[in-house]
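Lab notebook, entry 571. We have the chain sequence and a SMILES string for S-adenosylmethionine, and the next step in the workflow is to get a structural model of the bound complex before anyone spends time on docking refinements. Request logged below.

Task: model protein plus S-adenosylmethionine, output structure tokens.
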Amino acid sequence: MQAARIQWREGGTPESDAFGDVYFSRDGGLAESEYVFFKHNGLPARFAQAQDAFFIAETGFGTGLNALLTFEHWQRTAPPHAVLHFISFEKFPLRRADLIRAHAAWPELAVMAQQLQAGYPPLTPGWHHVPIADNILLWLWFGDVHEGLADLEVPGGVDAWYLDGFAPSKNPDMWTAPLYEQMARLSHAETTFATFTAAGVVRRGLEAAGFAVDKVPGFGRKREMICGHFAAGAPRQRLQKPEQVQVVGAGLAGAAAARVLADAGMAVTVYEAESPGAGASGNWAGVLHPLVTADWSLRSQWYQLALEQALPRWRDAIAAGVAGRLSGLDQLLVTPAWQVRFEKFAHRFPDHDLFHVVEKPCKTAFNAVHYPQGGWLSPPKLVQHLLDHPRIEMKRQKADVHSRGLDKAMTIWATGVGESPLRSAIRPVKGQVSRLSGSMPALHEPLVHQGYSVPTTMGLITGATFEKTALDQTIPTREGHAHNRQLLAQACPELELGDTLEGRVSLRPTTRDHMPIIGVDAARQQAFSLGHGARGLISVWYAAHQLATQLGACRRPCFIRIEHQSRISRV
Ligand SMILES: Cc1cc2nc3c(=O)[nH]c(=O)nc-3n(C[C@H](O)[C@H](O)[C@H](O)COP(=O)(O)OP(=O)(O)OC[C@H]3O[C@@H](n4cnc5c(N)ncnc54)[C@H](O)[C@@H]3O)c2cc1C
Ligand SMILES: C[S@@+](CC[C@H](N)C(=O)[O-])C[C@H]1O[C@@H](n2cnc3c(N)ncnc32)[C@H](O)[C@@H]1O
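Result returned:
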């Protein structure tokens, strides 16, 4: 993964070193973008009539100028209930500093530019999510566009294509048949495209893939450009939204699923055997931060994409009064293996922006990595907050796999270690946390070591044990407390620990491969959000959105190889 190397021309125009071409022209770049991509996809009229979701896909994100311009228009002209999904592909992403410098040329787009800069993802390969506004979601693929397109599904299809990317003469590898074939696979009968070039090789490629191509006058001094629509397309599929659904289990997984479906307009009944947050999600404080691995496998990419989707939702929850803070977290490098892992990662992705190394952050002998976006949250408060919705009805009732006591609607199983048709794939792992007295001024941010410690208004929550156990062993033990105190004492030997006040035990619903189990079995009217293991705070939103998309409650892009990692058919 290589960041773009930019030469700044006079007047602040960025030029790509690798391609020897400018990203946009300073004179009239904005007007050109508007003329070529916006106008020639017919978007002024189409935005005003947008239904539930509108999908634009772009080759070559670059500085994001086309995206920002499109966001501005969408905010002004689209109906408020409709959501814009802007999907863009970039092989050489700009570093954040270059992005900010490029945006300085467009003060008229400053509001949207700030949103993009704030959510601009780490420069790691794979899919990323950038929330721009409630009704504007940006999906970025960092890698070659051909690979990214092959990995993409769009329910209902892409509505408009922006074919950017440097000129075919300077970038022949991009403008090849597989690009047009993937476009055809992802298009419907009303799909349009527009591009600044009129090169014969592009026109012929698009025509061969089934697009009707028109030559029209180009922008400014450019003689011609091309645009058109997908003549070979099938009609766009409409959403077939189920009206109601039932969720079994009111932990983080069930509450997030219920919330997404209720927000999409469905009536949701949640069945809970005990009380909301009675299981693992009753844990007083949990932490979340990026999961850095040296190989940055598809699983790492899954969790990164999940985290990027979870963070904005959790920030909203904190703003609504849920206990927690997402303003930074340190992970102590307590073992040589951890140190090596972070070094390898940083060597491989030098522009990653995920963490930086800090020296001995509290009373400790260890250095740490600091995650600026990490933090902690109170899971039981989150559960309460998510379930508080006029379309969610709670029923205190135990459900069984024969659906006795349940209505006939689609059932989502989010039962943690409890009963479900896929229970045999779940391995309960007991976890005990301890609550210590005192505020410990040396610990002002959550700390991850061999366990984790979170300063809260209730005192210090510290833990946790990991024990394979029988399901009924949920009483805190003295050994558990001693273990938790020892983890923290080893990490920060000079820290004076308060008294142990109490403990809480619950069971993590883990799986053999440490990935959650997510998906819909339409034939049996069942869906699953299970196996969130020790990372539910990261994974439950992505799970909820995958289910909502598969159930037809909303339309979001799907990422084939990533979502394959959490498919239900593997268990
Ligand atoms: C000690 C500890 C520390 C943790 N720390 C972190 C952390 O720092 N960060 C992080 O991201 N994650 C952490 N986790 C993991 C996280 O808590 C879980 O991933 C998450 O809570 C799982 O949520 P869930 O909804 O899948 O399961 P649960 O919260 O267990 O919810 C399942 C619910 O289903 C109900 N139920 C079960 N069977 C039935 C039935 N038949 N009918 C009706 N209801 C039923 C249960 O009563 C329960 O309320 C921790 C877990 C533990 C135990
Ligand atoms: C002209 S710039 C795009 C300008 C951009 N749309 C904007 O609004 O700023 C072209 C971009 O395409 C990217 N690109 C070129 N070939 C690519 C490929 N094969 N896959 C993904 N991105 C590619 C380049 O790195 C560059 O950022």
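Notes for the group: The first strand starts at residue 6 and ends at 8. Worth checking against the assay data. The radius of gyration is 25 Å.
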